[in-house]
Amino acid sequence: MTSTTLWKIRLLTCVTLILSMGLAFLIGEFVLRFFVPAPVPAGYISDCEVAERFGWGFPPNHPFAIHHPDTGELLKTSQTNSRGWKDKERAFEKPEGVARILVVGDSVTFGVGPREEIFPAALEQLLRDEGYRVEVMSIGMGGWATDQEFEAYKQEGVLYSPDIVISQFCGNDLGGILMIDSAENMGLKPFRYYLEEGELKIEERERTDGKSFKERMGTFLYFKTRIYFLLAEMKKQVLARMSPDKQEGDWFLQFIPRVDSMWEPGPNSEYIQAAWDLYGKIIEKWDEECEENGSLFYVFSESYEQGSLNFNLSWDLLKQEGDTVYARNDQDEWAEVDFYKPRRSHEKTCKDHGVRYVRTTRSYQRYQRDPHSDATGNLRMAEDIRDHLLTDRDSLALLDATLPLSSTGREASSSVP
User: Fold this and answer.
1) Model-level pTM?
2) CATH code assigned at 90
3) Which residue, among 172, 366, 345, has the nearest Cα to 255 in the 3D structure?
4) Confidence tier at 249 by pLDDT (50, 70, 90)
5) Which of 286, 305, 308 shows the shortest CA–CA distance to 297?
6) C-beta separation of 279 from 146 below 8 A
7) pLDDT digits (tens, 9 = 90+) for 321-335
8) In this structure, what is the dihedral angle of CA atoms 306, 372, 360, 260, given to the nearest 10 degrees?
9) Which domain holds residue 81?
């Protein structure tokens, strides 16, 4: 047999193998489309109207998947409302005799679980159980920072004529407003806030998508082929069921907390203080605009509280000896940190800028494999906000006005349109 003939046989064998694999793929893909549900995104979209306005978000009536963080199980497929938010359908016109509360935030507000488990929905039910006629509306998207939330209020939230506005703060907000949040693609934000001689300024920016070819191809295959989607889902569930000592696949481990100047013992560094100053100016301006629009403005945070500390300790991301907490430094050595310092800095920033601050009195329980609060943690958050609103003179007077009157005085009613 000549070398030419051998080469032809090998070539024919390779072509036959490739065609056979291609045919098997097509048959498998065709069959799986009858048994495997169509994939829906679990993260944000970068090319819709909400994204063009605020950086990223969801289109109206858009499906998204809700997986249980601890098991990887697909719990349900939900969809956004007609404005692109994870909320009930809401009319712009406020019903007569109803107080509207608008919560604007990030993934904490959007929530990991179903809509009925997130803290805005829990807050609405708690206040209704007290007899108040309220609607608690939710505008939030994972990874948003305070600047995006403020823009969402100005462009969207104000249209609903809210009586109370709550800005939910997260520990990575400072990195977001400084455009250095490593967890998100900051190039997508169409604006940037900054301080110039103590005055808050905003500039428009050209949006740039920084995804690599590999990321784009992975996204394409995930949504276009059932085979790739099925394999990805199987891998997700296998990794989620691994014991905690096998940490591969847990996304939050990509952002292991390190000692930095945000929670180093002692005064804030000049750089971190400048970040707090910028944040303070944003919420101060937000408070002013709410006042002009006849709304009360509050700030709430679930970051750097006991539930957050417990989660980090459970994964050995932090260490505690007595009252002293340690995190790893750049040399991977344990060094002392002031874990609650960012919370104190946040509260002081709100006070310095005359903004109402919702105090945290409860611990917010997290999922086992996700740093976000679970259903119990969300309920505790809602209870803290409820308690604050019902003891704050201004918000209590506003809420009391929604209680129907009877001949014997005020009478609670849970009938809400």
Assistant:
1) 0.84
2) 3.40.50.1110
3) 172
4) low
5) 286
6) yes
7) 999 999 998 888 999
8) 60
9) 49-214+282-305+340-403
